[in-house]
Amino acid sequence: MDLVVPSGELAAAWRDSHAEWGPGFHEDGFGLTVDDDVETAQGLSDWVERLRDDTDCTYRWIVAGERVLGGIALRHDSNELADRLGHIGYGVRPSERGRGVASWAVREVLTLAAGMGMTRVTAVCEVSNAASIATLKGAGGEQVDCIGSVVRFRLPALDPHTV
Q1: Pairing of strands 120-126, 150-156
Q2: Cα–Cα distance for residue pair 76/157, rounded to 1 Å
Q3: pTM of the model
Q4: Rounded (10°) angle between helices 101-115 and 130-138
């Protein structure tokens, strides 16, 4: 597996992954908003360019071979959404869940965070999302709080020289 910068070269693979979620489902980690037009070539190109140009968030696609398995985003401390939504957001396509993809990607992004000078990051998920809770705990996450239906974790950034 690799974390790769979003690219138009992977448009067909991304569309295949996107179709697996089905219409109307939120795909965490891809930075996709309701205003993004990913159905047309120009719309997808504009969306990818927006992701690549974002100075407050680093987006990566989780890729194995020529398949997009998911997406992961690292919101920088300067990102106003980091406090509410956490620094890390990720999603794995349904057919790849339960195979360690998210665990691997979270560890990779924690290393990326350390390289950016971050020492700790936060991540949030739904209280009912047992898989994400296990993933975040497995990456060294400590539960900070639970407000309503959301649980927040604090995770140490991983120094790439000690991993």
Answers
A1: antiparallel
A2: 13
A3: 0.91
A4: 50
